[in-house]
Amino acid sequence: MGNLDILFKEYDALRAEVLAGLQSRNTIVSIGLAALGVMWTGAVGLREHDSGIMGLVLALGVPGVAMCFLWVWYGEYKRVQNAGAFLYDLESKINTEAKKVLLTRETMMRNRRARLHLLDPIVILFCLTGYLSVLAGERYLPSDWPRQLVVRWWRATFIGAYVYMVYRIGRLRKKTRP
Q1: 91: domain range?
Q2: Number of domains forming the structure of the chain
Q3: If you ran DSSP here, which 8-state letter would residue 77 be given?
Q4: CA dist list (Å): 142 to 6, 52, 145
Q5: What secondary structure letter does DSSP report for 60?
């Protein structure tokens, strides 16, 4: 087995890892949105019986779950980006070894990728869901709870998470770009 065969086997294995990572990210988003939907529906259903519990679920539970799914999604995003960067390097090794251009997918994807990452829809979706849930739940928190402390903490957490994710995603994309 020659060098080129070994490089192609490694390329195939990494491509499979990237595809599995993309599928995992989609699954994480689907499960996360389903969990958030169930929590919102359950909380709104409690409004008639116990608005205090509704406030707690909306102001604490939904944002916590949204933040957890956001971090799990980001871990998968990072894994896929790193594998893609390795695939990019591997493509150039294969093309150099073959003395002609055989593989171009990762190179094309790196050159075509949008430069604006401030509007990553998944980051916005989870951050906005958590942030709006805090605002909705604030009104229904039990009166003996330190409402302003809870609300300000979660608002700052989601704004901070959004800024951090945008910064990290931007760095990942710069690191993995040619």
Answers
A1: 3-175
A2: 1
A3: H
A4: 63, 5, 6
A5: I
